[in-house]
Amino acid sequence: MRSKTISILTVLTLAAIFLSACSALAKHHDEMFRPANDQSDPISGEWDVSFFVHDRKTPATFTLKLEGTKITGTAYSDHTGAGTLRDGKWVDGKLGFTLDFKKHESIAITGVVKEGKLVGQFTTEGFTEKWEATKK
């Protein structure tokens, strides 16, 4: 009887070890083979923005949300006031959208993620300049 009990305990212990190893492997597999766009969302969140306008830095804030390839959100600066984002896209590591304001001409934005920052160009009022943003 004692050897039968030891055999049962041994089988149960080995089964527990096996199931634990399978669970760890499944988790590792899911992490390794998750699609790239599911691994992280480099766009969503609040951003401290700097627009470089004719050799002057103009601060602003973006609040962005990424859903699939669509970007939505808002913007604010003392210069422009509050604005909303339209036609936002995130495709092949590139973003693009237009900011609309009540008291300022629209601003067309393009950019990429580079070293943890958003960087790119903006066009408004007949000129194109650079911008960058760091996540809050």
The count of β-strands is 8
Order of helices and strands: HHEEEEEEEE
Largest sheet: 8 strands, antiparallel, barrel
What's the end-to-end separation, in Å? 66 Å
Give the strand content: over 45%
Q: List the domain count as a whole number.
A: 2
Cα radius of gyration in angstroms? 25 Å
Query: What share of the residues lie within helices?
Result: 25-40%
CATH architectural grouping of the largest domain: Beta Barrel
> Mean pLDDT, rounded to whole units?
83
Strands in their spatial order, largest beta sheet: 1-2-3-4-5-6-7-8
The coarse overall form would be elongated
Task: State the CATH topology of the largest domain.
Answer: Lipocalin
Task: Write a concise synopsis of the structure shown.
This protein is α+β, with helices and mostly antiparallel strands. 26% of the residues lie in helices and 54% in strands. The protein has 2 helices and 8 strands; from the N terminus they run ααββββββββ.
